[in-house]
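Task: sequence design from structure.
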């Protein structure tokens, strides 16, 4: 998932994928590094504040879905 996000926001997957990732994460004015920090912080926060199991359950529920359908779990 993080590889998909990184490739999309750096333009390696084309403008449609880049726009999609930014629309889910929250805006096109964010730097690529800010988007990646947001993703890392979402996971780290779940672990730190005791909701790791819930986060894992959410990730497992979308594990076999296409990457575009997995992305909204970060929102």
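Answer:
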């Amino acid at each position: 998932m993080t590889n998909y996000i990184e490739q999309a926001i750096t333009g390696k997957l084309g403008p449609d994928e880049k726009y999609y990732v930014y629309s889910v994460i929250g805006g096109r004015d964010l730097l690529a590094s800010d988007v990646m920090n947001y993703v890392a912080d979402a996971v780290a926060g779940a672990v730190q504040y005791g909701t790791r199991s819930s986060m894992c359950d959410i990730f497992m529920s979308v594990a076999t879905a296409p990457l575009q359908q997995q992305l909204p779990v970060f929102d």
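The chain has a mean pLDDT of 87.
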